[in-house]
Amino acid sequence: MSTSIDTKAYQHHLGLDAKARTYISRQALSFESILPELLTKYSGQWVWFENHQVLDADLSYQALLTRVKKAVGEQIVLIKKVEPSISHS
Question: In sequence order, which residues have a C-beta less than 8 Å from that of residue 56 and are 6 or more positions away?
């Protein structure tokens, strides 16, 4: 299994088991629920996000991914870029 999920692909849950899909869905909803707060501190950065908190952040996806892999190995985590959502009204 991959260490991180490209959040553009997480919506499709490709290749994930039920537990991983549930985890990613919950973390993505949590991320979106506090996005305005995240934008004030982490705008334009990639964040490792879990349970309503940023565990690590970096402007470089690769640098962040390297640290995440060192911290958790090959487990599924949510890494997402903090940027304004596009509303489809």
Answer: 47, 48, 64, 67, 68, 71
Question: Which residue is it, tokens 């995240």?
Answer: 38
CA distance 8 to 1: 17
Residues 19-72 have pLDDT tens digits of: 999 999 999 999 999 999 999 999 999 999 999 999 999 999 999 999 999 999
Segments making up each domain of the chain, as ranges: 4-81
The CA angle 61-62-68, to the nearest 5 degrees, is: 90
User: What is the end-to-end Cα distance of the chain in Å, rounded?
Assistant: 36
